[in-house]
Structures are given as C-alpha cells and as structure tokens.
Amino acid sequence: MTSPIDPSTPALEPQAGGGLIGLSVVVPMFREARRIGATLADLVPTLQAGPELSEVILVDDGSDDQTSAVVQPWLTEAPVGALQRVRLIRHPRNRGKGAAVRTGLAHSNGQWRLLMDADNACRVRELTKLRAESARSGAALVVGSRRAPGALVESRLSRRLAGLIFRTCLGFLGLSLARDTQCGFKLYSADLADLIAGIAREDGFAFDLEHLLIARRSGLGIAEVGVRWTHVDGGTVRPIRDGLRMLGRAVAIRRRHFHPLPSLAAAQIEAKPVGMAAPGGRTKETVRT
Ligand SMILES: Nc1nc2c(ncn2[C@@H]2O[C@H](COP(=O)(O)OP(=O)(O)OP(=O)(O)O)[C@@H](O)[C@H]2O)c(=O)[nH]1
Ligand SMILES: [Mg+2]
Description:
Bound molecules: guanosine-5'-triphosphate, magnesium ion
Helix content: 25-40%
Number of strands: 11
Order of helices and strands: EEHEHEHEHEEHEHHEEHHE
Mean pLDDT: 87
Shape: globular
C-alpha cells in the first residue's frame, strides 16, 4: 500500500509492541536493483539475531530501475526476532544521497541510527566497533573510517587517489573534520539525527561534511573508528565529476555552518519540524511496507 506523508506529521507511529527501537538502519538507494538483494540477505538475518530491537528504513531515491521491486519481498511490519520492521520510502524523483539520508533519518525511531551504503561495502557487523566507541567516548556521531587505526580496506588505487586529492582540498578549506569524511557507515544518536534531519540542507554527496559540521557545531561529540571496507562494483559515483561538485558544495556548507551553536537547545530551535521542505526543496515521498 502506498500513502503520501503529510509533511507536518511526525514520521512514524511509535513502534508496535511497546518496545523501544534501539537501532534504525538507514539505507539510501539509487539504481541498486543489482546490489541491494545481497545486502539485505546479509543485513536482515543479522538484525533478526541481534541483541536489540531494530528496524530498517530503505530509501529509494527515484530509481528508474527495479530497486523498489527487488526489495518488496523484504518489507514487513511483523517482527522477526529482534527486527521489528523493514520499510521502504520512495522519493518520486532523484534528489541525491544527502536528501535520501535525511528522509531516512527523519523517518527512523531508533535511539541510534546507522547509515549504511546499499552495496554492503561495510557490513553491519562492523557496528559493534562503532557502538563500543560511542559507549567509550560518549560521542553522538561515530564515523566508520577507512583511514583510522584498525581499518581493513580493499579498494581501487584510482579511488584512493581521488580520496587523497579530495582530503587535501578539504584541508585547504579548513574542513578536515575526520580522517575519512565520506565513508558510508556512520552512527548517529537520535538527538543528533533529529537535529540533522531538521537543519541539514545538502542534498548531494557532500552531505557527510554538513553532518560532521552540525555535529561539531552542536558540541555533541564526534569519534572515528576503523572499519573493514570492501569495494563493490556497480557504484554510481563518478569520482572526478562528483568530487569537483562536492568541493564546490563544501565551500557553501562551510559558509552555512561556520558559527558554533551555543547549545543543543539553540540548535533545536534552529531546526525545522521533521518533514518540512528545505527552501526550494521537495518533501513528497511515499512509505511502503
Ligand atoms: N539517494 C541516493 N543515493 C545514492 C545516489 N547515488 C548513490 N547513492 C547511494 O549511495 C551509496 C554509495 O554509492 P555507491 O554507488 O556505492 O558509491 P561508490 O561508487 O561505490 O563509491 P564508494 O562507495 O564511496 O566507493 C549507495 O547506497 C547508493 O545507492 C543518489 O543519487 N541518490
Ligand atoms: Mg560503494
């Protein structure tokens, strides 16, 4: 069944069964028909067997392939083990990874929200390292990293070179916010995720920088943890074109989030209610279960 979301209503009802969702896993998808099935076959049983109540929020960002059809058999509102539900939210048209992540965070109920890429380059089992780090340091944002101690990375030389150039440019811009800002495996506390869903505006691949800057501005704490990461073929990111575009966006993001927020309370006042459109933005989306 498909129903449009009224932008003024909170994203989802409190979870059925009265249990508190400990973890929401948000997966942005664009043209992922060939890769998402294998990812769900790994993710879903792991969460079912997991130690805490969880949910999966899949966001199809206007894919023009069979992405939404491929995930249909996985969608459910019936809890299996610890996994309470798997939901699909669809953007009517492609808005960008940042917009899809914002939608996913805004529609999540978990006390912690894990962002992971649809290609399973970093598997959900790496989450234990991020949770341990958040418990140790108290950080509200724990960044999975391909460059922090403990990282185990299989990737292409061309990608590593593109990453080096990107990081160097970020350094010149004063945006060395983490050793690896772009890894698609990040853990957010609910407070920070709600704040980000309210005030972040970056729709494209540069969204990670904005999330890191908001976390820094709010003083909620950022930590970074090395993860095992394996390149998976079939991605849509074009390193040169998208890298240049992201650097352009980085300048705009830095301008937008230059000043520290005096407190989380002030940050929340700046935040708009969940689901409200960014200036000139689009909010129409549909939820499927
Ligand atoms: N919502 C949205 N997600 C996208 C878009 N492009 C890519 N993604 C998602 O972003 C994640 C990472 O994209 P990939 O295509 O795996 O990127 P990649 O080329 O493998 O690059 P790396 O993973 O950084 O090495 C996946 O979950 C994609 O589905 C887009 O336009 N919109
Ligand atoms: Mg990838």
